[in-house]
């Protein structure tokens, strides 16, 4: 599984983000491209420990068992439910959101695994830094594929 902490995969993700444009259309889902970038940026805040959403009851019940979905090789399902605090429905500026996400990915990668959040994922619970690295790559890959890059 690809890991965002490996510079090769960070560079790949950053290049794919650069290939997006304001007219990029989703293959599934309700978010436009600017909202998707803001969503991914908000997710980075969770992985970096800047945002600490509470664990939901469903995550407390099944999150530990479902945890491998986050970091295994199987692609994420289309239209999966998301963490409520990072569901973006408001209009966003494409250029600002793209640059913000790129900078967060660069900082996350440079800070390394030791700087990963020790706060539990709101659904899956406690993750190792390796699981965060793989899951972060997988989440970004999922949304970039959603917009054809």
UniProtKB/TrEMBL annotation:
Stored Pfam families: DUF1569
Native source organism of the sequence: Halobacillus halophilus (strain ATCC 35676 / DSM 2266 / JCM 20832 / KCTC 3685 / LMG 17431 / NBRC 102448 / NCIMB 2269) (Sporosarcina halophila)
Descriptive protein name: DUF1569 domain-containing protein
Gene3D superfamilies: dinb family like domain
Organism superkingdom: Bacteria
């Amino acid at each position: 599984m690809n890991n965002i902490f490996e510079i090769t995969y960070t560079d790949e993700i950053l290049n794919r983000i650069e290939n997006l444009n304001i007219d990029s259309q989703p293959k599934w889902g309700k978010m436009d491209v600017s909202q998707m970038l803001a969503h991914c940026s908000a997710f980075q805040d969770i992985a970096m420990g800047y945002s600490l959403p509470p664990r939901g009851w469903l995550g407390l019940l099944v999150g530990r068992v479902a945890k491998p979905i986050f970091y295994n090789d199987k692609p994420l399902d289309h239209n999966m439910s998301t963490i409520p605090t990072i569901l973006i429905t408001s209009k966003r500026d494409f250029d600002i959101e793209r640059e913000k996400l790129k900078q967060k990915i660069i900082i996350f990668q440079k800070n390394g695994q030791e700087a990963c959040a020790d706060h539990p994922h709101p659904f899956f619970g406690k993750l190792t830094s390796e699981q965060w690295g793989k899951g972060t790559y997988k989440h970004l890959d999922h949304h970039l594929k959603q917009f054809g890059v």
